[in-house]
Amino acid sequence: MDRLQLISVITTFFASTEAGLLQTTSPTSGNTTITPTLNAANAGIIGALILHSVAAIISFLASFVLVRYKLKEAKKEELKAEGAIVASPTSIKHRDVEKTADHNRRQSPSRDSTTGEIIYSCNPRLEQVGLFSSSKQPPTQLLSRCHSLCIFLAALGFILALMGILCYAWAVQPLSVAVFSSGVLALCLVSGAVFLKW
Fold first, then answer.
1. Angle, alpha carbons 112-116-118 (nearest 5°)
2. Spatial separation of the C-alpha atoms in residues 80 and 61, rounded to whole Å
3. Which alpha helices (H) appear in the chain, and where do they start and end?
């Protein structure tokens, strides 16, 4: 879910950047003639804006609305092994769990008093609340499909944004700037392919 939240933040940022690019590439200014290359630039940037917006919406819904989990930590046995005396599992307060976790981060690993084994974690468990709480297992496959879809839409949006920027360079900028921009993009693509294969 953390990766989906990160995708939502990144794609929202790129969508706002592309919305700002549309002000530059808009053919409504009086001294700019509308050419097919300028139309291709606008189509690429608008397409990237749509794809990144959709990816941001899907990743937001998948990470915040689709599945909500509550982390339940510190069972009675764990607190007992760490030296705390607990009357019943229901008496464990969130404040006590945070104090124990903070204490454990500062101390060396504790040992179970009965077996002498080192305890390395609090054995957290996830408890599902909210939507889809009736199912026994969390919908991890649904989250995985949402993640894959968001990655695909974001990557396609990046390609369209690069196409739109390059078309803008050829439509509005001088020839030297357009050739230089094409060379820089080609260099980036070739170096990326070489480093991925290497």
1. 65
2. 40
3. 2-25, 36-60, 76-81, 94-106, 140-172, 175-197
Domain ranges of the chain: 2-68+148-197, 74-123
Sequence-ordered alpha helix ranges (H) in 61-139: 76-81, 94-106
CA 65-68-13 angle, to 5 degrees, is 50
Long-range contacts of 29-37 (CB under 8 A, 24+ apart): 32/172, 35/171, 37/167, 37/170, 37/171
**Residue type, position 58, single letter:** I
The model's pLDDT over 129-138, given as tens digits with 9 standing for 90+, comes to 555 555 556 6
**CB 147, CB 7: distance < 8 Å:** yes
State the pLDDT at residue 21: 87
Confidence of residue 23 (pLDDT cuts 50, 70, 90): confident
In this predicted structure, the answer to whether residue 139 has a pLDDT above a threshold of 90 is no
- Length of the chain in residues, anyone? 198
Q: Is the pLDDT of residue 27 over 80?
A: no
pLDDT score recorded for residue 86: 47
pTM: 0.63
The beta-carbon contacts of 32-39 under 8 Å, at least 24 apart in sequence, are 32/172, 35/171, 37/167, 37/170, 37/171, 38/167, 38/168, 38/171, 38/172
